[in-house]
């Protein structure tokens, strides 16, 4: 009969481990869709909608130990019961600025001010579609009644005013190598 080692008095200890993926395009993706057949006289068309969501897999242990939850900074000065589940216009502007700065698309604030100016200079036509109307509303700060978060937000209203007064937006807002408004009109108009 062989002797069995008694381990009931000792504790095994193992260091925490994390799963890290190689650099590159790594994500988990989910696509959900629904389609409805529409019978026409001579052919059949499927009308549908899809929703696509993806999660980037970690490539660095900091992704797990110190995750970035939002491009919009959390404002702890606002009581929880007064916070909205929808971002304010100023938070959307902050997210656009932070995104552009993070991915080196130019000075985020300057590019956004220029886009607001250009949207006021040459507004989209009403018949351009829902997406263009939403972008027009986002790039028109005077369409909100929200209080400004900080005094510097008055610059957005000034950029809109410059555009309405037919000023040269490109000359006023220099230092932007990504032209948001021009790229949007090129892609969606």
UniProtKB/TrEMBL annotation:
InterPro entries hit by this protein: DM4_12 (IPR006631)
Domain of life of the organism encoding this protein: Eukaryota
PANTHER family: AGAP004005-PA, AGAP007094-PA
Protein name: Uncharacterized protein
Highest classification ranks of the organism: Eukaryota, Metazoa, Ecdysozoa, Arthropoda, Hexapoda
């Amino acid at each position: 009969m062989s002797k069995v080692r008694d381990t009931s008095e000792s504790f095994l200890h193992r260091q925490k481990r994390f799963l890290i993926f190689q650099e590159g395009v790594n994500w988990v993706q989910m696509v959900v869709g629904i389609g409805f057949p529409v019978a026409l006289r001579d052919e059949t068309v499927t009308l549908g909608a899809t929703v696509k969501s993806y999660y980037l897999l970690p490539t660095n242990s900091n992704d797990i130990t110190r995750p970035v939850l939002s491009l919009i900074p959390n404002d702890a000065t606002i009581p929880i019961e007064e916070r909205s589940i929808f971002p304010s216009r100023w938070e959307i502007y902050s997210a656009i600025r932070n995104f552009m700065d993070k991915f080196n698309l130019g000075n985020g604030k300057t590019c956004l001010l220029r886009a607001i100016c250009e949207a006021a200079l040459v507004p989209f036509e009403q018949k351009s579609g829902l997406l263009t109307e939403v972008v027009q509303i986002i790039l028109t700060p005077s369409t909100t009644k929200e209080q400004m978060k900080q005094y510097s937000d008055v610059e957005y209203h000034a950029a809109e005013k410059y555009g309405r007064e037919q000023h040269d937006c490109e000359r006023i807002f220099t230092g932007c190598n990504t032209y948001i408004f021009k790229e949007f009109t090129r892609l969606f108009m």
